[in-house]
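Note to self: user wants both folds in one dump. Writing first protein now.
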Amino acid sequence: MVSKKVIGKYWTKKVALLLSASVLVMNTGCGEAGTPEINSEVKAETDQENTETNSGKNEDNKDVQSSDDEAKSFITAQIYDNGKSIADFDEFVNGEWKEQKSQNSDDSGTFLWDEQEEFDKAIRDILDNTDLDEISEDSGLYKALSIYRHILDTQEYDQRIDSAKRHLQPIENVKSLEDIYKLYQTEEYMMFSKAFRFTISADYNGYHATWFEPDSMMSDIDFYKNLFSEDNADDSVKKEFLTLMDKLGYSEDRTIEMFDNASVVGEMIEDYWKEPVNNIVYFDSASLEKENVSVPVIEILGSLEALGKHKDFVAKENLSDLLNNLYQEKNVEAIRDHLLLGAITRLFTIYGEDVLKASYGVDYSDQACRAIKAYASDVINEAYNEQYLGDFDEQRALEIVEDIKNSYRDIINGTEWLSTHGKELAKHKILTMRVSLGKNEIENDLSDINLTGDLVDDYISLLVSKERFERGQIKKEDEKRQIFNANLFEVNAYFLNRYNALYVSSGILANPYCSKTASFEEMLGYYGTLIAHEYAHSYDPYGINYDWNGWWETWMKEDEEAAYTENQQKIADFFDGLEVEYGRKIDGDLIMNETFADLMAMRCCLKILEQKENPDYDLFFRTYARINAHYITEQGIDSAVADSHLIGKERVNHILGQFDKFYEVYDIDENSPYYVPEDKRLSVF
């Protein structure tokens, strides 16, 4: 076990992520530009440290998955027709698809989104068409689907309003700070509070920790306050919102007062995030007492079983100032109304279509779907796996993971800049890595929910179940920690540095390239390069600072770190300023980490193929090119080059162009604009 410690510069990334929370709320909304996101309903809380890949995959390429002799001979004839070599491998493999895309799309396109669309349709089919009579009423799936369908049935709208008013009344009754503290000690009202918001995630010392992450709600507050301004050109949203508030028992004057009061709290929280600090620290009873904090934070968290064995939590070092300034008797009404607004907006999903559509521009059924996916993710994902992963070749997938681990250990052994001790540490990290395929390592089965038939009660029970489940992870430390809260419904994979583990979504595994009928080269080109890419992130400039336990522990010696940094800089220098489509240029520093992972993954997978008898390199390279195909219009190029990954053509041509085997398989010579001279080819790690 390691001792708890305060970390300064090492916490910079976490601080930046926390500071960006309000920006995320404003920029990832569901509706039109300028409307706030229903952030508490759209997504579950996730570990924001997850390193993710955007590999670009699509169902449209089923026609290229065949590895029969006819297909291969056709490819060979194209390659060597008239003795002309390939100048652009991406165009050779993906040109026809991109031409079709150009005729049917005005937007930036990528294989990833098409695959995501299929995944979303399948989830929606489960929600809409599963026969409840065929599943047990005690199952989590039954409970989730019952709540989802009850949300869509708005015939009991008035009853919902009455039930919601009943849940809001205890907040209305607040008269003192003590009343507020009592509400905080209940699961429901702690969940409604945005000013006193805590989440559970792994920390840099190898534990699950409780993080203080208050939400100012200022994006929502400003949006609704703007409805009452003279500049508001659209009165329909104001009308629908005031209709809802009236039904909940609030006049227009009281509504405006609520937003004004909530702004007092919101602005103080905004200032908390904006204030520059050097450290994120652990607070316990002693440190809070030393800072003269009278708010019973430890008592409140203890009553909710939201503390680990060290009885502390993590926050910015200026937390004491926020607590001492905010929690004063003069601010009771402001805190009450901030809590009240948090409760009202948290329940937006159940109010009905008119107000939701007017306020957020989102279809009611879509919002219901998002809410259930966020709060019943594990049981919905399990149903998807049962229906769609029947052809997934799990055994071979696990074998490829072991092949990748062995390949990386060979790569580490061959490094010249790592000492013998450094190699052993690096290899041990690979040896102890684990993978979770298509599910969280620990799942919330909703067994703690008992349906009552009252939608508001049942919906709140669903939300509370998720928060209770998350708090339960605080007791798990060291080797007992398990992955939870992975983003189950995105077609993607994530390496979690603080677990030294990898999560792969079910949407990846459902791809035909992962099926029992796919060839080894196809599965390696799709799934293998993805896994190897994610594992490579454990050695990128950020991930390399974690050891095999998932603890922040810099393990390289000074000379090793210098050599490592030099290698990384070569990647940035190679790509920096490289001109791509529409005259845009690549930022080498921006793409360095992801490109390092791409290069490591390709090197790793090629070493695996070297050990196979008669490997089909052509099929492997074509598969890699296919899943990275990217059609980009001029309207989409700026966002594409702003991404931390290389855009499609460069991710194909310039990654493959670093490896001798690629030139051996195809007659690509120095006349190609993507040809990389041998002495310029990047040799990572």
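First done. Writing the second protein, which came from a different request thread.
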Amino acid sequence: MKKYVIFLIVSALVAVTGGANAQLVKQKTKVEEKNQVDRDWYNCSFEKDGVYGACVNEAYEFLKGKKVKARPVVALIGTGIDTEHEALKANIWKNKKEKSDGKDNDKNGYVDDVNGWNFIGGQDGQVMPFVMREGEREFLRFKDKYGDVVQDGKIYYSFATGKKEIFTPENPEEFDYYRKYVCKESRLAQAMSTNWMDHVSADYTRLFDKEVRAKYPNKEKITVADVLEVCAPSQDDTSIRGMILYGIQIVASARKMDDWESIYNIFVAESRFTDGQKKYDRTYAKYGNDGRPAIVGDNYLDINDRVYGNNVLLTADAAIGTMIAGVIAGQREVEGRNNPIADQAEIMTLVVQAGEGEPYLKDMALAIRYAVDHGASVIMLPQQNSLYPEGQKQWMSEAIRYAEEKGALVIVPVHELSLDLNENIFFPNRWMDGGKEFTNLMTVGMSGKDGMPSANSNFGSKELDIFAPGMKLFSTCTGDTYQFGNGVPMAAATVVGVAALIKTYYPKLTGGQIRDILLKTVTSRKGIELEKNVQREGKKYVDLYLFDQLCLSAGIVNALDAVKLADEWSK
């Protein structure tokens, strides 16, 4: 909390002196690579090709002559997709109980959900242009209660009446959640708190003026040095008094002023407060309204309000979903195209994400249940999030547990924030419901041709399961085009593809069993020492790690060894 208060003060002082969706990036360079090792290296192996791919080509050699037993359904929960792409349309899932006739033929509440569903769409065909972050949604939920509250040492003040008054929360646990988690995650909360902190610093400035003039009643020109000397806090002072004084010193130094009256006028100027309000208004205009009430019209805090959305899957950011789908499914060995991993897999698209932001947990929970109820055996989620409100976290926990009971594997990519997941909790994770850990939830990080993890990947010897190829992967893009792309979602797609390949030939294996197989059969990198970026307390460092300190499996997904073990387990 102290660090958060310091952040607010520094933000305010920067103004006085004048002084985190999907991490998939398309490459704009022309496609020049001609051979398979360059174009489809994620299918290759170190032994045969000199790159640390997922050994998919060799897996197909092992599977030659074996009977295809299923067309596994893979649910991509995230952005939209180009269902008409030449390389994907034969592998797009079709709801056999639904027709494109404007009716809810299968009586599930969703009209014309032939290839999937869009949970951020409206009945008139609109789609939300972006989704807010969870921190912004939570701030707006608590804004009227706590938005005007600031902390000064051990005391909280409220400006709800327009005047500074001591604040005592009726629900300390809720208030503690707001201050520790919501304020940290919300740009709106930070903008509003900075605004009110300007008022606090003005109050202290007036107090400093009284104190220094009482000390020097006859001094004609009081200096900043006088104020710093007279008003210095005592050693046991827990208020932000000292921080405000330090701020005054910074501003005086930056402006090369020593005249106290000039600095005083800067800190108490009415324009500071109006400018702070304008900054909050600009922040709200940018991040505070994603149009959900007008477009979707549901209550996002009510999981039972489930019938909403539309069937629009070709969204503005469908390129991301199309690239992910192209890694997973489609016809192999077609000249000029990429080689997908699971040629028999069918792609079900469930849209919960648009442009930027963090998906609504209600949408994701309902999408997981939709996927399971419509036969998906492998489910890919958007990247993890560091803020899951308690009630909504339960929705996600119950949905993942439901998938576990039905034998579905759930795969989620980690973020590229250089954070140790043992020290920083992200959701979903295997322990999130407080009970028995999920056996069907798998977390994925990104690795390159050299077998090294991304320098900025989140990591954890228990919290991150596996690494997979995700850098410069050639895949499908919207409009029958093909592009190279980077990102952890591409790495997760590689693991999803391998899981779907296993389900194609060994459909009786459960999601938990497939997770175990993938963990036991990695291309081991155990004992490999490497440099890795790590972020602690907002600062980035470079440190040495062993590969086995970065993830549970200590390796990279290996399709060949995975199908071999799956073959043994299925006998």
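Dump finished. Worth passing along: Residues 1-23, 25-33 have pLDDT under 50 and may be disordered.
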